[in-house]
Amino acid sequence: MYAARRRLIVLMSSSLLFSSVVIFFGFHILAGDRGILARPELDRRIMLAEEKLALLQRHHDFLSHRIRLLQADSLDADMLAETARAELGLYSPNDVIISIDLSKLKFSDITPNSEVN
């Protein structure tokens, strides 16, 4: 009698444990941080990160180009004059100054082939 009751209790407890493990993992597969329902948000965040990376890469290329123009072995006279005027604030009254604040660019307006100048 006790053996049959004990087997029933072991069977019920193991079934309960197994079903709770299945429910736990099933819930996290469906509604967890990286589950099926979170996929659109993850895709959106990946897209924003890729756009930001593309913008930073173009900015890096732009700055690398300017640095190459200022190196001693291939110094560009126009670049030297532009940098000196910007640092010293020496502009003639006829100069037109266009400054671009890169921090205010929106990442959604990025096209893959456009350049930052």
Structure description:
- With 117 residues, this protein is mainly alpha-helical.
- It has 2 domains: 1-37; 52-117, no CATH class.
- Helices cover 63% and strands 0% of the residues.
- It has 3 helices and no strands.
- The longest helix is centred in the middle third of the chain and has 32 residues, at 39-70.
- The radius of gyration is 31 Å and the shape is rod-shaped.
Keywords, separated by commas or semicolons:
117 residues, mainly alpha, 2 domains, 3 helices, rod-shaped
Short description:
The chain is an all-alpha fold. Helix content is 63%, strand content 0%.
Write the layout of secondary structure elements.
Elements: H1 2-31, H2 39-70, H3 77-88
Mean of all residue-level pLDDT scores: 82
User: How many domains comprise the coordinates?
Assistant: 2
How would a crystallographer describe the biggest sheet?
none
The count of helical stretches stands at: 3
| Succession of helices and strands | HHH
Alpha-beta classification = mainly alpha
Number of strands: 0
Shape: rod-shaped
- Residue runs with pLDDT of under 50 for 5 or more positions: 108-117
